[in-house]
Specification:
Layout: E1 2-6, H1 15-28, E2 33-37, H2 43-50, E3 57-60, H3 64-75, E4 80-84, H4 91-99, E5 102-107, H5 111-131, E6 136-141, H6 149-160, H7 174-182, H8 189-204
Parallel strand pairs: 1-4, 1-5, 2-3, 2-4, 5-6
Helix pairs in contact: 3-4
């Protein structure tokens, strides 16, 4: 059983896109997945109910007092639970971080995303100290445009801030945007290759059960 929380204190950084990739690829492999949508905009819930092609359990929950019991309930009957948090440092986000085996912090190509990623990583460190256990966290660079000045700048800023970065970078590709209405995660081409590498990275960090076979 694994719990993955996707969090950042900034909205619009690509949280839901990461969650979609994880859920869609795992569900397509027959893995029992559940999602907790703790974002006010309920974008993930809308996607699961209208676009997802494989069974995914989803609960939209904003009440911070219900987050932990809900995660525990889902954990008992699913292989993987993924939590999509609000774009703010809310109490619900802190609880979601505290429950996680792995926390992913998406960063797009803007200085504001870097600033908020630093805040989020510090929030995760504080939660780790509070719980007296290390919560593994990785920054995920998303919507990357390789070969551009802005991509180079973001890489330098991430290194300067000493942020723990996931090996795989997800590029700004149409296939990722199409997921919002197709409900299908890419399995071929560059986008499919990046999805596979992304999930391999999560597995290596203990974010996915070791015995899990993911369709590529």
């Amino acid at each position: 059983m694994s719990i993955i929380t996707v969090a950042t204190t900034k909205g619009g950084a690509g949280k839901t896109s990461l969650v979609r990739i994880i859920l869609a690829r795992l569900a397509a492999s027959g893995i029992k997945v559940a999602a907790v949508d703790a974002d006010f905009n309920h974008t993930l819930t809308d996607w699961v109910t209208t676009a997802a092609k494989h069974p995914i359990t989803v609960h939209h929950e904003l009440d911070e007092t219900k987050i932990v019991p809900l995660i525990a309930e889902l954990q008992s009957s699913h292989d993987v639970v993924v939590i999509d948090t609000a774009g703010a440092a809310s109490q619900a986000t802190i609880f979601a971080i505290g429950c996680a085996d792995l926390v992913l912090v998406p960063v797009q190509t803007s200085s504001a995303d870097i600033v908020e990623a630093i805040k989020t990583i510090n929030l995760i460190k504080s939660a780790s100290l509070m719980m007296k256990r290390e919560v593994t966290a990785r920054v995920v660079l998303t919507a990357v445009q390789p070969g551009t000045n802005v991509a180079e700048h973001i890489e330098k800023e991430v290194a300067k801030a000493n942020l723990p970065v996931l090996k795989t970078r997800l590029h700004r590709l149409v296939a990722f945007q199409e997921m919002s209405f197709t409900g299908i995660a890419p399995t071929s081409g560059l986008a499919g290759h990046q999805c596979s590498n992304f999930l391999d990275d999560l597995a290596a960090l203990g974010g996915l059960p070791e015995s899990m076979k993911i369709a590529s």
